[in-house]
Amino acid sequence: MDDKKVRVRYAPSPTGFLHIGNAQSALFNYLFAKHFGGTMVLRIEDTDTKRNVPHGEDSQIENLHWLGIDWDEGPDKPNPKYAPYHQTQRVSLYHKYIQQLLDKGFAYKDYTTEDELKVMRDEQRKNGEAPHYDGRWYGRSEEDQKAAEKQGLKPDVRLHLPSNHIYAWDDIVKGNVQFNSDNMGGDFIIEKSNGMPTYNFAVVIDDYLMDITHVLRGDDHIANTPKQIAVYEALGITPPRFGHITLIYNPKTGKKLSKRDKETLQFISQYKNQGYLSEAIFNFIAFLGWSPVGEKELYSKDELIKAYDPDRMSKSPAFFDQHKLDWMNSQYIKNADVADLTDRIMDLIKEGESEIAKKLQDVNLPNLREFIKHVTKVYQREVYKLTDIMEKVYFFANVDSETFDYSQFDDFSPVVVRLILMQFRRELLDASEKGDIDFDTIIRSVGNATGIKGRELYFPLNVTFTGNTNAPQVGSILKLYSISTIINLVDKALTGTEVKS
């Protein structure tokens, strides 16, 4: 790594919310900065005002924080040397450099109308040429410009590209990459007729003035890089190191993830609302385009920062493996503190962004938090997401009104099932009178009294109290119910056995 202190940036536009691709770029910039003891900058590229969405910037910031990604400088942490951090507040800075390029003859005003551009492109396609700007206003006289302005035309400003010129860079991920200026679509616009700079110009000025040393971004930006290098060269500025991170692909289609992939959640807020843990998402995304040495797959954030090595960034596509994510999330849930998981579930309920969260908002339990904590303790080793636990909470809180499938008793003798349930009822009432209820003890007593053990004992009890033959720790689950609820469930199950006397 160079002696110069590392400065990277994550620069989203508020034209949408934080999606998995944004998060990937932000995360690798974060790991890069932290691993090398550098600075991460958050910059908001908001010049495309027509496409900006309400709360787009807030969504980016809120969900980055949820993921565990923080920055050293940004709109909320301004460094006077580099502020402001919104491009719309930096327009006067861009004009200075636009004028510099105009004065040197590296840029020029273009008065071509939209209709003229359309005719030009149609003609090029007709001739089998790739559409490109033909440079018709390059070198035109002041008289021509004044005549165009008299017609009310407002010019764009274009950067002139030398012919047959190679723009090359040593990419952190891809190695040597180069483009020929003849294949870049011709002289490109650096300032629109409304006075706003284009992305490929503003980003150069911002990176230069903010002393950015390394630019890590998605592979979909690779065609922008030669244009930006062209601006650097025209201004006589040394560009930063570039690295283009592999994009994320759908393994089923082999295509880049898009909003059409309905089976894949697109936005980080969706993962949060569906009960994925931020630590699991951070860990999962870190493996989309990078891999550590060895077979270990579960890493804390600090471990990832220490292990991160840009030389191990992948040139191959990163495939989004939903099963891997679910497994990873389940591991984090298994190893988490029950009280912490309970707090997170309470937060999800309060926010009410999922259907199950909204349903739980209407659950009237005086001890909801303790109820959730108990369910979490029982099921945290069985689930993939926090919403799985929340579904269990809702089920158990409303178990009296649930309809169970008693046909599951068909695998057992109706006489045996009835014997177990009648004995359970007696043992429960007896323990209740004594004021000493321990459900595991009651179940053992039922087994001793009936001589029924193992699967034949537990499966009927599981169906009776949970509606499913598979239920972990049925004795613990029973602690969630009132005595009257338990008696009611036993009586319903007895009716469901349809035993003839």
TrEMBL record:
Gene Ontology cellular component annotations, sorted alphabetically: cytosol
Domain of life: Bacteria
Binding of ATP, residues: K259
Keywords for the protein's UniProt record, in alphabetical order: Aminoacyl-tRNA synthetase, ATP-binding, Cytoplasm, Ligase, Nucleotide-binding, Protein biosynthesis
Residue ranges annotated for the Glutamyl/glutaminyl-tRNA synthetase class Ib catalytic domain, each copy included: 5-327
Keyword Acetylation set for record: no
Catalytic activity: tRNA(Glu) + L-glutamate + ATP = L-glutamyl-tRNA(Glu) + AMP + diphosphate
Gene this chain is encoded by: gltX
Motif residue range(s): 'HIGH' region: 12-22
PROSITE patterns: AA_TRNA_LIGASE_I
A matching Pfam family: tRNA-synt_1c
Subcellular location: Cytoplasm
Motif ('KMSKS' region): 256-260
Protein family per UniProt: Belongs to the class-I aminoacyl-tRNA synthetase family. Glutamate--tRNA ligase type 1 subfamily.
GO MF, one example: glutamate-tRNA ligase activity
Record note on quaternary structure: Monomer.
Chain intervals for the UniProt region annotation (Disordered): 122-152
Reported function: Catalyzes the attachment of glutamate to tRNA(Glu) in a two-step reaction: glutamate is first activated by ATP to form Glu-AMP and then transferred to the acceptor end of tRNA(Glu).
Name under which the protein is recorded: Glutamate--tRNA ligase
Residue span, Aminoacyl-tRNA synthetase class I anticodon-binding domain: 367-480
